[in-house]
Amino acid sequence: MAFGGPLRISMPSDTEILTERDFAAPRHLVFACYTQPPLIKRWLTGPPGWTMPVCVFEPRPGGRYRYEWHKGEERLAMSGVIHAIAVPEHILSEEAFDQDATGGTSKSAVDFAEKPEGTTVVNRLTYASKALRDQIAATGMAEGMEMSFQHLDALLAEGWGS
Question: Is the separation of the CB atoms in 87 and 110 below 8 Å?
């Protein structure tokens, strides 16, 4: 079996969602795809038909990020602030969707672990409450994330910069 997807998801506590995904590429390339806007726009697009016309990512403590997705008249957007970043190992941030009816934010701690076969990315998402965590988990987030990760697999397979 080849090293790589699909996404693994679990709920280690009442307020957390843990996602894990393997990529058959070196850690520095996977990290670059998470932090460089021209690369982010190529893979973080979710289901077919969606595009990301707005992508801002300032890879520094205190840096901001903003993602806006469009599909026809539909629009989805999120913003966040980076609390800590260690190249190419870790990103700690806090984010919120513009359309979030709960007004809740989440913390995201993303770790990039280098392995002989590639890179494992673990994202620990922490929400303000169990109800908010359950609401987010019920949105189909895992399917959308996996679709984006398949785009990331294709981008990494191009071997750019290696």
Answer: no
